[in-house]
Design goal:
Oligomer: single chain
Largest sheet: 12 strands, antiparallel
Distance between the termini: 60 Å
Strand content: 35-45%
Number of strands: 12
Structural class: alpha+beta
Helix content: 10-25%
Order of helices and strands: HHEEEEEEEEEEEHE
Number of helices: 3
Length: 231
């Protein structure tokens, strides 16, 4: 009886090792039946940053101390086909990436880069957002929140749609794209900012008191996809 238990344990250990990025030959559906959520993604990667098994098929996940999955990746035949990341800000989890890939290029989903207000006790927000559909960039916006240089009790907000609904938006004094102006910023001033060969259109509000600033931020959270501001 003891011998049977030892053999069974060794078999289960072998299966778990395989699912965590060792030499594996199971199908995609079989890989998902294993408890691979407890397999850290770094166990799949060698010291050069590449997969140990160049033909790996399966899923890996990293958890934080609260057992919340903060990173999840799915591979097929060695190619990354999906990725999800979360970041904890002010006690709340925000999904910063939910993306599928084709030939390891963004295909469907979104990415968020988090920014922080300088000297603000950790006030963070989604500063840059990109959404892809069928490999095409559909939405791309940036937000900059900051304190005024000469009066730290006042704030400024700048919002730019680089691309909206698949359309590139540029600054043109003679023909401003009003459609890109946030509805919660009706008095914002347009400004051009040249970079990467494009003159981007930014909408800016300055010298906002904290109440007005909070109201604009609340409006942006309703208008901009996946925008958040963590106080």
């Amino acid at each position: 009886m003891k011998k049977q238990l030892v053999v069974a344990s060794l078999i289960m250990l072998g299966i778990f090792t395989i699912s965590c990025g060792g030499k594996n030959g199971e199908t995609k559906s079989e890989a998902k039946t294993e408890e691979v959520a407890d397999c850290p993604c770094n166990t799949l990667i060698d010291t050069t940053g590449f997969l140990k098994d160049k033909n790996y098929t399966g899923t890996c996940a990293d958890k934080d101390q609260n057992d919340t999955i903060i990173l999840k990746k799915e591979y097929k035949n060695g190619y990354l086909i999906s990725k999800m990341t979360k970041e904890k800000v002010k006690g709340k989890y925000y999904t910063t990436q939910e993306m599928t890939f084709d030939d390891e290029k963004e295909f469907n989903g979104y990415n968020i880069e988090i920014s922080e207000i300088y000297k603000s006790n950790g006030q963070k927000y989604s500063g840059h957002y990109k959404r892809y559909k069928d490999g095409q960039l559909i939405d791309d916006y940036g937000v900059i929140c900051d304190k005024m240089l000469l009066d730290q009790s006042k704030f400024s907000i700048r919002v730019c749609w680089y691309t909206k609904n698949g359309k590139l938006i540029e600054y043109n004094e003679d023909n401003l794209n009003e459609e890109s102006r946030p509805k919660c910023m009706p008095d914002s001033e347009p400004h051009g900012s040249y970079g990467n060969g494009v003159n981007s259109l930014w909408w800016e509000l300055e010298n906002l008191d904290i109440t007005t600033f909070d109201n604009v931020v609340e409006g942006l959270q309703k208008e901009l996809p996946h925008f958040f501001f963590a106080k």
